[in-house]
Amino acid sequence: MGALFGLTVSTGYIILSCLIAWWARKLADKVWPTSTLAKYLLLEGIATWELCSTCFELIIVADNYGVLTYGLYLFLLTIWWSKVWGDSSACPYTHIEEVVEGGQGPTVALAKILAELAGGALTFRYAQYLWSLEVTANHRGRAYEACTADLQVPALIGAVIEGLATCLCRIVSRAISEVGVPHGYVADSFFGTAMVLAAFNYSGGYFNPALATSLKLGCAGHTTTQFGLVYWVGPTVGAVASVFLYKGPLVQGFVKKLSGKKD
Questions:
Q1: What is the CB neighbour count within 10 angstroms for residue 87?
Q2: CA–CA distance, 145 with 8 (Å, rounded to integer)
Q3: What confidence tens digit (pLDDT) does each residue in 114-126 have?
Q4: Which residues does residue 2 pair with via DSSP β-bridges, in sequence order?
Q5: For residues 32 and 40, what is the distance between their CA atoms, to the nearest angstrom?
Q6: pTM to 2 decimals?
């Protein structure tokens, strides 16, 4: 019963975070009925706050109920986010991709990245407060304990893992979108979750610099330089590489085959 109660409380905390973000988006729509850069930045901050606050609680889920339960929750959350975030990505390298592709300028991209980092920075005290309530034994002592890194391999290998997985996720996501797979968001969420689980015991499987910064920057087990290499340089290089690889003949040939297109 204790284990079930603990999982129920963690589930409640996750749902609470999603509801807070949902209400915040509704309020933003009322304050800014039309699309503006300021509204977009706010929505990016809200999405990142939601991502990071729920993932703080997923740490508790993974530690107490195993990686498969963690994966199931992440899969369901990813589907939810695909439905409610709209144009927000809560991920810095997506804006760098847009710069590389000529879709936006570097100044706007930087503003979006800073908005995401701000959203992520606001989550720690929120999660700490919930944990400090110690409603369950799973949260006992967690609010103020020193955090530890998830990196279990040398930093360079960790960067390769984060970069390669990010590259694959971005290519698959683009392909699913272009092919028009029915309920593609489910397939995209499944593949992304599978990649996270595959990397979980090596680099942690973050594939998102803002998320990793919110949850693990300054934790014992890696230096700041190693953290930057693994969780910023690795995924960003992987994402940018995916832009060029996706346009290459190998991937395009596969995409055309799936979609039934002919040259």
A1: 9
A2: 23
A3: 999 999 999 999 9
A4: none
A5: 10
A6: 0.94
